[in-house]
Amino acid sequence: MPTVIPDIAYALIWLWIFNPLFGPINIALDTLGLPMPGWLADEGTARFPFVVMSLFQIGEGFVILLAALRGLPREYFDAGAVDGAGRWAAFRYLTLPLLLPWLVLLTFRDVILTFQYTFTPSFVMTGGDPYYSTLFLPLLIYEEAFDRFRFGPGSALMLVMFGLSAAIIVGLYLAFRSRGYTGDV
Predict the structure, then answer these.
(1) How far is residue 152's CA from residue 158's CA, in Å, rounded to a whole number?
(2) Which CATH superfamily is domain 7-176 in?
(3) Where are the domains of the chain?
(4) Is the Cβ–Cβ distance between 107 and 168 less than 8 Å?
(5) Measured between alpha carbons, how far is 69 from 85 in angstroms, rounded to an integer?
(6) What letter would DSSP give residue 34?
């Protein structure tokens, strides 16, 4: 569900959840007699809500992998069962190699999205504060280019981010280029 909710609405929901006065997390902590941190107001705990938010964004990958699992050729698993492969051997030697192209695709997509994901939540929820603890690279690029009108440093930061993501993707491509199911076996 969080992958179909607009990013701004999703950030506002988490802003309410981590509200230090009226948020359900702090109300539950107060009910249990535990200390109530100022989640987004304290630089020591300001990144924790972003980690929790990212954990709820992984459902889309599971749906893609479920579709990939449904599309695996049943004949390979039948042949593995005839050859005496147990559940672990079938998973290790059949399922994982056949799913590898899907896993690589999801890894490429996640590398690209990782560099963009933090912009909207940090812009909406904290604006990079407290004490720049939630000033992630996309928000820094935005602030340099559009708040301070320093387009040169903003575009240089964007090129660094692009180069870093391209280097990671090329490295992953080189590591995984000759593995997996190609469909014509």
Answers:
(1) 10
(2) MetI-like (1.10.3720.10)
(3) 7-176
(4) no
(5) 18
(6) -
